[in-house]
């Protein structure tokens, strides 16, 4: 996947994650649909960055962060399915209070860890936008 598409995917993921954090504004059904959409976006993100897995032992700090990110993602996803009142309501799971607490804590952790994950890649993001800006200047300069 082109770098431009990867950057767009990352920003869409962050936007969806932030919208998911305001369930009171979106309502439960939209929250659950967006949550499942976020799961699909995350799978796409992981597939686009599969080459990272081959080199993951080189960056110990990134490895630790990504393991925590994966754990919080799985936790928020599983607890979200258990709490579902729309998409997975047929499951009728007991102990909802526990799942609610897990879901809330892991959602906050996922958001914070996602921001940290993006911060680790800020150089790549800046370089992409700098190169994009330079290439648009060159293209604009040759047309005169």
Can you walk me through this structure?
The chain has seven helices and no strands. With 144 residues, the chain is mainly α. It has one domain. It is globular.
Characteristics:
144 residues; mainly alpha; 82% helix
Rounded mean pLDDT score: 87
Query: Class by helix and strand content?
Result: mainly alpha
Rg: 18 Å
How many strand segments? Answer: 0
How many separate helices? Answer: 7
**End-to-end separation:** 32 Å
Main beta-sheet annotation: none
Question: How would you concisely characterize the structure shown here?
Answer:
The protein has 144 residues and is mainly alpha-helical. The chain contains 7 helices and no strands.
Write the layout of secondary structure elements.
Layout: H1 3-20, H2 23-26, H3 28-48, H4 50-54, H5 60-83, H6 96-120, H7 122-142
């Amino acid at each position: 996947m082109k770098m431009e598409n990867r950057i767009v995917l990352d920003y869409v993921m962050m936007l969806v994650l932030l919208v998911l954090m305001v369930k009171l504004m979106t309502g439960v059904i939209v929250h659950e649909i967006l949550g499942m959409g976020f799961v699909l976006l995350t799978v796409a993100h992981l597939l686009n960055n599969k080459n990272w897995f081959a080199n993951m032992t080189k960056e110990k700090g990134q490895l630790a962060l990504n393991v925590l990110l994966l754990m919080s993602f799985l936790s928020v996803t599983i607890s979200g399915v258990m709490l579902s009142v729309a998409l997975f309501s047929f499951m009728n799971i007991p102990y909802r209070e526990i799942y609610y607490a897990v879901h809330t804590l892991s959602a906050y952790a996922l958001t914070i860890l996602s921001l940290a994950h993006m911060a680790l890649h800020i150089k790549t993001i800046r370089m992409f936008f700098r190169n994009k800006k330079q290439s648009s200047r060159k293209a604009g300069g040759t047309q005169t």
